[in-house]
Amino acid sequence: MIEVSNLTKDYGTVVAVHELSFSVKKGEIVGFLGPNGAGKSTTLRILAGFLGATSGQVRIAGHDIAEAPLAARRALGYMPESAPLYPELRVLEYLLFRARLKEVPRKKQQAAIGGAMERAGVTHMAGTVIGHLSKGYRQRVALADALVSDPPLLILDEPTAGLDPNQIREVRALIKDLGSERTVLLSTHILSEVEATCERALVIDRGRLVAEGSLEALRARQSSSALSVRVRDPQLAAEAAISGISGLSLRSVSSDEAGEGRRTLHLAVSEASDAEAAIEMLVRALTEARIGIHALIPEQASLEQVFSALTAHEKAESGTSEPGSAR
Amino acid sequence: MNGFIAIYRREMLSLWVTPLAWVLLTVFLLLQGAIFYSIITHFASMADVSVDTGPVQAYFGQESIFLLMTLLLVCPALSMRVFAEERRSGTIEALLTAPIRPTSVVLGKYAALLTTYALIWLPTLLYLVILRKTGVVDWGVVGSSYLGLLGIGAAYLSLGTLMSAMTKSQLVALLLTIFIEFGLFILGVGEYIFDPGVFRDVCAHVSMMGQMEDFSKGILDLRRVVFDGTVVALGLFVTTRVVDSWRWG
User: Given A50, A74, A88, which is nearest B93 (Cβ)?
Assistant: First the structure.
């Protein structure tokens, strides 16, 4: 559905996207992931035909966007970041304008607009002036706009930005629903969004693709697995007991509020060692040191950790971390 | 063509559901009313003097400097938001990702401005209806006068559309348009200042006052029409190129 090869976009001296190549197959829901300023919006704007690429090739539904821009644009519904709309129009007027613009046949316009409003949940707002709508409803109107021509491909730029948790849940459910019959490419800097809605993720950082694959494959990239142990350890002897076990390293210790030496140890199992053997040795060592074990909790590497590992260098260099990307 | 009509209708709707067109209409009619009133009272006070000119000719012709001054205010204010607002608010992104050519966008918006301009002039036909009650109105002259006004408005609005595409600020677009159109207007005044020669001829040809004086006498000079058409075509062509260039910004 989308084929991007060696896409580069530079704004004078700033390279926003560098030699980006990826493809999205029909019927996929793909998350386009990256910290703020990674080039997500620029890439999506190029795909949607709003910006021209400096070099490289993009094909949408088989149409080259440079050679057949109108055919490519007919195949997609695009929702820009922050959902810009005409504040003076009513929802119905706006969608009618968009349907006409997107060449929806006159006889089908009524049904197309009705269907799009229904899917986006704005039917009861049809007569409201857009300027009076809340941010969440405006976002939905923009979504209805993307749906109105019933395109096979949806490109959504940060569809849940600025929404409250309930609205986010609704929009995600809607995207999942839409993805059952369409191809969806959505950008976000929120990882849980990708986990909640997408089958596959593309991680982009500073205009370059740093990882690509299914969520499982991305998780597997985290080299070591982790483990937490909740213990009762009045003598504070756990560190000493653990230190001898090979392949196991202590990352941090937190004290529980309950007191009496109740603590939680966060451990990492290194990739090279046998994790199961290390856990057996851990339990034996703790028991021998007369430390009570309350819980043994395996931790699967979260996408958060993968993401921060993949894009960590930027934070190290700039010294600022994006609050959104660490959520 | 579908895109053109969709843009035109949206633009008309936005112009007339917001106060802008109504404010301009009111200001315009107040000014025109004042001008027309003073011309009528002037002619009424010298009713016994037999002259070869009447209030209609005076309004559209000899005294057209007043009328053109109001156009220098109204036209730039009408066109200032046409692209600047879309770029400031970001709606241009939704617009240009629809399957539509930049030419349709520019022409659709321009056609809406020109229609609005014509609608703003429409109530002034009442002046002629009033005059008709007391005298004779030469409808041929009226027709050519309005044609001249349409030509000037079309040229001003084309330049205004271009200026609006050049900047994201409506205020800057307004000031640039006034600056350029006032410059064009002043160039026309050169007809009365410079000695006979090539430069004076150029001034006479581009003069908006000259155009109105000709058209108000019923003289349809093709050179005037060609000049207005050239300004319109050039302005809209460059605007289309500017819209195209945003992809490469």
Answer: A50
